What we know:
alpha/beta, 20 helices, 54% helix, 7% strand
Amino acid sequence: xxxxxxxxxxxxxxxxxxxxxxxxxxxxxxxxxxxxxxxxxxxxxxxxxxxxxxxxxxxxxxxxxxxxxxxxxxxxxxxxxxxxxxxxxxxxxxxxxxxxxxxxxxxxxxxxxxxxxxxxxxxxxxxxxxxxxxxxxxxxxxxxxxxxxxxxxxxxxxxxxxxxxxxxxxxxxxxxxxxxxxxxxxxxxxxxxxxxxxxxxxxxxxxxxxxxxxxxxxxxxxxxxxxxxxxxxxxxxxxxxxxxxxxxxxxxxxxxxxxxxxxxxxxxxxxxxxxxxxxxxxxxxxxxxxxxxxxxxxxxxxxxxxxxxxxxxxxxxxxxxxxxxxxxxxxxxxxxxxxxxxxxxxxxxxxxxxxxxxxxxxxxxxxxxxxxxxxxxxxxxxxxxxxxxxxxxxxxxxxxxxxxxxxxxxxxxxxxxxxxxxxxxxxxxxxxxxxxxxxxxxxxxxxxxxxxxxxxxxxxxxxxxxxxxxx
Length: 471
């Protein structure tokens, strides 16, 4: 029997679909799952009659693969990845390749890369985005780690990845060690921001303006035909127009308002603080999910902490709807600017040598944040590969500046009605701080010097200075 060109360990939804995806591109795929029934199920179900071969032990699984072995690990991030590596490592030979396709923390990938290199094995940390459908039909793939390993698996990954409208595969080598998982982490942080911005616009127009879910679905469907075109806007329109099968009510009327998180958005915020990079919108999205989880406290607080009534003048209805569209787009640009600013800082800090244009390129299809906007981001980095901020690019600068009035109107309207728009406000706060030649940090620094003699710099001469405040 001829050997398989590719192996997959872990047959949950993502692993199962990725195995079928790779097989559909003309490769024989070997599969293994710790719970053997999942392997048997795949072989008897979708994998039946296809070039998918199964094994029920690591030694037999490894024996099914041609050398150098190329093995994708699709197991839960964290200790489970280390456990699988330790279990399979004794059966591998020098030069074999392990690919972690889960949402691993980039520092864990750095550690594993070093350890496996010392054992003569090659390692890739590959961020994979696209969910269940993307895994099967073509995800966006962000591999980082040993470049020699990338060269070996490049053809398989390129054939399995999503294709953008110009036919380009949405996969490219990100950089050494943990670069791939770092890029995926920031992708997820931007995703958090994008989702929260959309949710706040939905809340304002539904609760504040009284638009029905069906009307909002039609509106988002219309928005998806223009500059807001994106996967998240597309699925939002579908969600808004979906009714619950059991009750017949709009599905959003029966879903608990408590957003979960797996940690990647929080990692983005934490790392941004470590690097000293402002990511206002992403941070707002993370804490918005946290406060959504305080459901019992919010229910009690709603009885005691009264605010304004969410009412709105009917004659301004269309004005607010139009402003909401433009505010959402401007905020989205600002959020992406923060994400790409973090990628640039991390590239320097960790010596990843990230290609920001390439990252925008592979996010154009397959992944959750795919949007028309990414073509414009690619063009911005074409014009200036060393662009310090997307807001310095003429196109993006003009888009945000001419929409800032809409942002201010939407936010002040929401504040007046007592509807929280934390991510929208954070985006505008970032914009106003970023464009300010002078901020009140002079007072902050004076306070620090007053109570802690931390010194300060002056505008009129070089050096560090301290004032005797009690003199």
